[in-house]
Amino acid sequence: MAKQGYHFVGRHSATKICGYTKSSMTGGNACYKNTFYGIQSWRCIQSTPAIGCNLSCSFCWRIIPEEEGYKWNELNAGGWDEPAEIVDGLIQQHRNIVSGYKGNKHVDMKRWEESNEPAHVALSLTGEPLFYPKMNELLMEFHKRGISTFLVTNGTMLNALKRLTVMPTQLYVSVQAPNKELYDKITRPKSLNASWDGYNRFLDVFSTMETRRVFRLTLIRGLNFTDPEGYAQLIKRGKPHYVELKGFVYVGGARNPARNLSYGQMPAKDEIMEFAEKVAMLSGYHFTDYDTNSKVALLSIDRNAADNRLLHFEK
C-alpha cells in the first residue's frame, strides 16, 4: 500500500491523494463531486479511518488483503486511535503530500495555498469506515474544524449505522447489484453480517437517516449492468436524495486476472445515460446531470433536490 502512495495515520487510518486533487491544482479537471455538489477537489482529503473491509468486491480498484496474503480483519489489530489524533494526522499527511506540488510550474498557487487548508474529507479511500467505533466523535471533530464529511459505507454495518447520532454532510451507500444472485457473486462476502438480507435491512435504516443520502452504483457491462427494475426497487426502499450511476473503470486491483474482469466491461457514456434514464423512470427520480470525465450520471429524488444540490465549503 505504501508503494501505491498510501500514507498511514496511527494504527488503522490512511490517506492517499486523489487524481482529481492533483489535476484540479494543475489546470486539469475537478472531481464529479465538484460538478454535482460544488466541492473544491483541491481541498479534499481522500481517507479512511479503517483500512479493513468485510467484502471483496470484484470491481474494487483497491487492494484486497487476501490477494496479498493477509486476512481483512488483521488490518485493524492493536486497538483504536482517538478521533482528534486521526483528524490531526490526516490533515498533516495531506499537507505533506500537497507540499511537493508547490514547485510545479503548472500549479495554480491560490489553489495550492487553499489545498493546505482542507475543507472536505471523503471517508471512502479503502476498507469500511463504519468499522471505526468512534465515528460520531470523528465526524464531530471534522465538523468542529469546518471540514465537511462524505461518508461511504458498503451497507453491511447495520448496528454501526444505528449508532450514528452525528450525521455526515453526505451519507453514501454502495449499491453493488440489483438482486441477491449478483450481490453474492460480486461482493464475495467475508463475514456473516455481509448478506443480501442484511443489506436490505441496512437500506431500511439508511432511509431514515436525517442527512443527504446517496446511492452509488458501479455499473459493469456483462455483470451488474442489468435489471433496472431491481435497482429501482432498492432506490424506493433506501429513499436516497441522489443516485450516482458510475461506469466501471478497469484500473488498479480490478485488473487482477483472478477477478475475471476485462477492459471491454467498461460501459460507454450513451449506455450509462440510457440505463440511468430507465432507472429514473422506474423509480420516479429525475435525471439531473452527467460528468463525462468520471462517467457518472446523477438522479435526484425530486426537482427541489436537483435545484439545491450545490454545497459550499469555503471557510
Write up this protein.
With 315 residues, the chain is an alpha/beta fold. It has one domain: Aldolase class I (TIM Barrel). Helix content is 32%, strand content 17%. It is built from eleven helices and ten strands. It has a ten-stranded mixed sheet with strand order 1-2-3-4-5-6-7-8-10-9. The longest helix has 17 residues.
In short:
The chain has a single domain, classed as TIM Barrel (Alpha-Beta Barrel), CATH 3.20.20. Helices cover 32% and strands 17% of the residues. The chain has eleven helices and ten strands.
Tell me about the largest β-sheet. 10 strands, mixed
Low-confidence stretches: none
CA radius of gyration is 19 Å
Please state roughly what percent of the residues sit in beta strands, choosing from under 5%, 5-15%, 15-25%, 25-35%, 35-45% or over 45%.
15-25%
Order of helices and strands: EEHHEHHEHEHEHHEHEHEEH
Q: Which CATH first-tier class would you pick?
A: Alpha Beta
Mean pLDDT, as a whole number? Answer: 94
Q: Note the gap between the termini.
A: 32 Å
What class would the helix/strand composition place it in?
alpha/beta
Side by side, the strands of the main sheet go 1-2-3-4-5-6-7-8-10-9
Number of helices: 11
CATH topology: TIM Barrel
Which CATH architecture would you pick? Alpha-Beta Barrel
The backbone outline, from C-alpha atoms, is: globular
Instruction: Work out the helicity level.
Output: 25-40%
Q: So what's the oligomer here?
A: single chain
Fourth-level CATH superfamily = Aldolase class I
Number of domains: 1
